Amino acid sequence: MEALDGNAIAGTLLERVGAEMTAARGSCAHCNATAQIAELRVYLRAPGTVLRCPSCEKVVMVLAETHGALRIDSSSFRLHLPASEDLPRHEPHGHVPRRA
Amino acid sequence: MSPISRGFMGRRRPVADPSRVPPGQYLTDDFPVLSAGPTPHTPLDQWSFTIQGAVSEPVSWPWEEFLALPSETIDTDIHCVTKWSKLDTSWRGVSLDTLLEHIETEADYLTVWSDGDYTTNLALEDVTDGRAWVAYEYDGQSLDPEHGGPARLLVPHLYFWKSAKWVRGLVLTPDDQPGFWEGYGYHNHGDPWLEQRYQGD
Amino acid sequence: MIWQLARVRELVDETPRCKSLVLETPEWPGHRAGQHVDVRLTAEDGYRTERSYSIASAPEERELVLTIERLKDGEVSTYLVDELRVADELELRGPVGGYFVWEQKLGGPLLLIAGGSGVVPLRAMLRHWAAGERSVPARMLYSSRTLEDVIYRNELERLAADAGAEIELTLTREWPKDWTGHRGRVNRQLLEDLAWPPRQRPLVYVCGPTTFVETTATTLVELGHDPSRIRTERFGPTGS
After folding, report:
1. Does C216 touch chain A if contact means CB atoms closer than 8 Å?
2. Which of A26, B57, B73, B120 is the most buried (most CB within 10 A)?
3. What is the DSSP string of C42-67?
């Protein structure tokens, strides 16, 4: 079975955490390789969701939904979020004015 | 309640005999491939099955010896916690009773471990008396790597996440140690007839 | 509150296996090219399942379009392609995604590499590119099994003729006798020939089945392209 990538959990993270996270960069606690969440290897319905480092394949994040509540264990994926002044200045996520 | 999608049925099969389908389950004819990681490919000449931990003496079988052990066919239904049940599946494997026959232990539990860092926990009484096998054939053929080959654990009376793919051994333990999914909130026991999907069920 | 109901306004047969769903979404906040939605279906007895589909329409368009490939034994795709009717409603979550996104300000040159139905989000990017100033060149390399599997074929020809997009098609399983496009899978030679040289630092988007995406991305890096300029999205059956 072939893995998908972090794009596959974008909706879950947006809905449950409240942020667009696929572009977030972090490092693997096992091998120190850095990757954006979209680049992690994703195994869905395993019965939960397992995310693995694209470099060393070890588990870096687990999503498990039990009784409707979601546990996210990202202890092996250390997020590095840039300083606010380094963030690109543009419209908020998803807002593009429609043509009439 | 979500809006209904007109005309959507999904791939469920009608249930002819409800007594064979645990609560909350749907029937499928497929055998979905659900994995927590990439398919391992341990060469058979490096494969072994080991029983260790709270035992007087650990024991290990390389592949050829394992295949030479007494085996049996198992015809059974399987139930996945993601709500799929598949009836009348056919396997061949070695019973855990055979594997544990000469093991001396006072442990009541075991942790199953697999290639790919997967673990799950079971009570000894759930894998003895003809309730569990290490299976290496499915439907008359060698077990496909995608489905856990060369060998997987088969414990059909519990939810199928307990039937660890790519199994390599058991570690007997005095206490119940949650395995991978159990540590994330899945039920320690996992009886589909009592719908024990998550801790607290 | 990000789940919403969309109504099917029109169904368009794209290829024997693919259909586009043109949707009315009154509460749509707008989206960026490359983003996707999660579609959730609920049966009468409460059975529910979800799949992700890339948005095929550009941000400039009035209606949201999804293009669905019917997968063999696909539980959701067979419903969306074979059963769904005009005026039916679909529950959607989105738009989703911030990594696999292209917009004018990100620049280029823009290189879009598609395997099969991976062309869907790349078509949205190309439409968005065509609707803008086209200050960077755009090139698409699109791999399909056969000519009749090429989704949006007429539109891609028009974008080439009218907007100056460079469209390169390769067919992998069979091709017409007089075929002037490429033949065979996307390989190192084809990428070397068709990608801009690494020193031009193209912004590359690769989308399609997992193996296609991984082989292509790995080859591009071997050819000297900067991995941080390559964005990938893997499609695949979800196995359940």
Report:
1. no
2. B120
3. E-TTS-EEEEEEEB-S-TTSSSEEEE
As to burial, measured by CB atoms within 10 angstroms (0-12 exposed, 13-18 middle, 19+ buried), residue C4 is middle
Cβ distance B184 to A67 less than 8 Å, yes or no, reads no
The pLDDT score that the predictor gives to residue B135 is 98
**Burial of B177 per CB tally in 10 Å (0-12, 13-18, 19+):** middle
3-state secondary structure of B11: coil
In angstroms, the CA C192 to CA C202 distance is: 13
- Give tens-digit pLDDT for A16-50: 999 999 999 999 999 999 999 999 999 998 999 99
Entry field: residues in chain A: 100
Residues C78, C71: Cα–Cα separation, whole Å = 7
Q: Does A15 touch chain B if contact means CB atoms closer than 8 Å? A: no
- Round to whole Å and give the CA distance between B128 and C123: 57
CA nearest B188: which of B170, B171, B174, B201?
Answer: B201
pLDDT digits (tens, 9 = 90+) for C92-123: 999 999 999 999 999 989 999 999 999 999 99
Residue of C198, C196, C226 whose CA lies nearest to C110: C196
Report the residue from A5, A15, A95 with minimal CB separation from C2. Answer: A15
Cβ within 8 Å, pair C233-A23: no
DSSP alpha helix (H) spans, chain B? 63-68, 96-99
Report whether the peptide linkage leading into residue C29 is cis, meaning its omega lies within 30 degrees of zero.
no
Segment A64-82, tens digit of pLDDT: 999 999 999 999 999 998 8
CA-CA distance, A89 to B171, in Å (whole number)?
55
**CA B187 to chain centroid:** 14
Give A-chain residues touching C236 at CB under 8 angstroms.
2, 4
Instruction: With H, G, I as helix, E, B as strand and everything else as coil, classify residue B136.
Output: strand
Residue of C nearest to A23 (CA): C99
> How many angstroms separate the CA atoms of C18 and C9, rounded?
17
Residue recorded with tokens 């069920």: B201
Other Cβ atoms less than 10 A from the Cβ of C124: the count is: 27
| Both tokens assigned to B82 | 């993601």
Question: What residues are paired with A77 via a beta bridge?
Answer: A28
In tens, the pLDDT along B105-147 reads 999 999 999 999 899 999 999 999 999 999 999 999 999 999 9
ipTM of the complex as predicted: 0.92
Instruction: Report the distance separating Cα C57 and Cα C44, nearest Å.
Output: 31
C126 touches C112 (CB < 8 A) = yes
Separation CA C151–CA C120 (nearest Å): 8
Q: What is the mean pLDDT of residues C9-37?
A: 96
**Which one-letter DSSP state was computed for residue B37?**
S
